[in-house]
Amino acid sequence: NEKVSRNFIQNIIDKDLAEGKYDKIVTRFPPEPNGYLHIGHAKSILLNAGLAKEYGGDFHLRFDDTNPMKEKSEFVESIMEDVKWVCGDLDLEKVFYASDYFDKMYEYAVLLIKKGKAFVCDLSPDEIREYRGTLKEPGKNSPYRDRTIEENLDLFERMRAGEFEDGSKVLRAKIDMSSPNINMRDPIIYRVARMHHHNTGDKWCIYPMYDFAHPIEDAIEGVTHSICTLEFEDHRPLYDWVVREIGFEKPPKQIEFAKLYLTNVVTGKRYIKKLVEDGIVDGWDDPRLVSIAALRRRGFTPESIRMFMELSGVSKAQSSSDYAMLEYCIREDLKMKRPRMMAVLDPVKLVITNYPENEIEYLDVSNNQENEAMGTRKVPFGKVLYIDRSDFMIEPPKKYFRLYPGNEVRLMNAYFVTCTDYITDEDGKVTEVHCTYDPETKSGSGFTGRKVKGTIHWVCAETAQKAEVRLYENIVDEEKGVYNEDGSINVNPNSLTVLKECYIEPALAEAEPMESFQFVRQGYFTVDSRDSGKDHLVFNRIVSMKSSYRP
Ligand code: ATP
Ligand code: MG
Ligand code: MG
């Protein structure tokens, strides 16, 4: 079984535990609270939480809130909710904030200065860039590199006290300006910036840089395996330098894996943000997006997301997964769990001319033919029904087995009907289809007299509930790919179809937000959590029945 084969991270952990490097593993998910989480983050959450669970270790949710410029506490709430939802059974009593370690980080910076491993630099940002050199060319030492320890301690203290303008001085690690790795060329570890912080308020006017802060956060929390995405591979030597120079006893180890990408789907936080800001979608939880809030609102389940992550695997090689695989996962998850109901999205009336007037009969219908444990329900049937407009044609093409004049079909869960006539309006649009039914053909009666090729669904007009149904397509025009040459997104103008006059079984009237159902022949649908109400039901299509993915 391929599923039980170990990924490369499990192999590393197995080895570390076998060699006694750590007794217990600690992993973390460190989002920056600067936006909503998306499906890529779900991969990181499930990977880290999953490893902690598998090895009996701990998993920390840590807000990496060291850059007040972009961060907002509004996002802390949404991230917490999303992480809990993705993980299911996670106990999140312990939530960590990197900003709680600002005092420690300051102390460690002082320690580096005392060891002669950090210095205050007065070069301007442009000069620093210039001195840094290029991939082909080594950098040059800053003229401030040889300041004495005393001078550095004094200047850094005064940076903290607010004596210097924003951007006028930085603290830099003293490593190696000729290193082939540019990250090691005396990187900046602290900057002066007067910014209000959501957690520490105005206490600080200096803030640590990510490459200095992150390893310290991990080490303070006793993280053993700090799992991040490939773009940090080049930063690992600096990560190791920081934990070594500060002298942490059991330093954490950084491990990189490839980001999750979905073919033709907009995943990056930056791009999702742009779609929201440009008003192309109606917020971060628009069901066409792949933010976690949007996937939830669309009707994806945590189980389907987890199955998807299992299938897509963990690797160091960059690749792109297919959205069709995610659709396969949600169908698989809902198939046996959700009732199969009838809903007519594009209605036309069907009148059964030989059925008694004013009579409603209640048919026994199985809730899920593949899962008898889900029981049955009563579905009303009467003289006037709604059927889907596409299930009737005046002049059918070859191989059309649904209704047309003279043809007999099965009304799902009910009777055979034969089309006898139809009515059109002045534009030629069909307004009613007329049929006769054969009482002997009642579903469940064991009738075997003759067979029909087509089965169509329907809803009894008198008892039907009206509903709005929203159908979605990719927000991106797949023919053209995700991005234009100028970096803008190729928006699909037909990504949303709103059907205002749909008719659903009365049993669906009680559906609660987030509840989901199969609408037979049409896919899986969920009650929209934002716009649906008792007197105005709104359903989102999660996924159609058709699959283009083969497991
Ligand atoms: P984005 O690139 O979409 O802006 P980010 O990396 O800036 O996301 P963070 O809040 O910094 O977002 O990320 C938190 C964690 O999620 C990091 O460890 C990051 O590596 C991980 N992560 C982000 N995107 C993906 C992805 N597509 N696949 C797997 N992990 C991801
Ligand atoms: Mg980031
Ligand atoms: Mg980013």
UniProtKB/TrEMBL annotation:
Q: Which Pfam families match?
A: tRNA-synt_1c, tRNA-synt_1c_C, tRNA-synt_1c_C2
Q: Which reaction does it catalyse?
A: tRNA(Gln) + L-glutamine + ATP = L-glutaminyl-tRNA(Gln) + AMP + diphosphate
Q: Does the keyword ATP-binding apply?
A: yes
Q: Which residues form the Glutamyl/glutaminyl-tRNA synthetase class Ib anti-codon binding domain?
A: 339-438
User: SUPFAM superfamilies given for it?
Assistant: Nucleotidylyl transferase, Ribosomal protein L25-like
Known EC number: 6.1.1.18
| Domain called tRNA synthetases class I (E and Q) anti-codon binding: residue spans | 455-528
Q: Which PANTHER family match?
A: GLUTAMATE--TRNA LIGASE, GLUTAMINE-TRNA LIGASE
Top-level division of the source organism's lineage: Bacteria
> What is the similarity comment for this entry?
Belongs to the class-I aminoacyl-tRNA synthetase family.
Domain annotation Glutamyl/glutaminyl-tRNA synthetase class Ib catalytic: ranges:
24-335
State the Gene Ontology terms under molecular function: ligase activity
Q: Which residues cross the membrane?
A: none
Protein name listed in UniProt: Glutamine--tRNA ligase
**UniProt keyword annotations, A-Z:** Aminoacyl-tRNA synthetase, ATP-binding, Cytoplasm, Ligase, Nucleotide-binding, Protein biosynthesis
List the InterPro entries hit by this protein, alphabetically.
aa-tRNA-synth_I_CS, Gln-tRNA-synth, Gln/Glu-tRNA_Ligase, Glu/Gln-tRNA-synth, Glu/Gln-tRNA-synth_Ib_cat-dom, Glu/Gln-tRNA-synth_Ib_codon-bd, Rbsml_bL25/Gln-tRNA_synth_N, Ribosomal_bL25/Gln-tRNA_synth
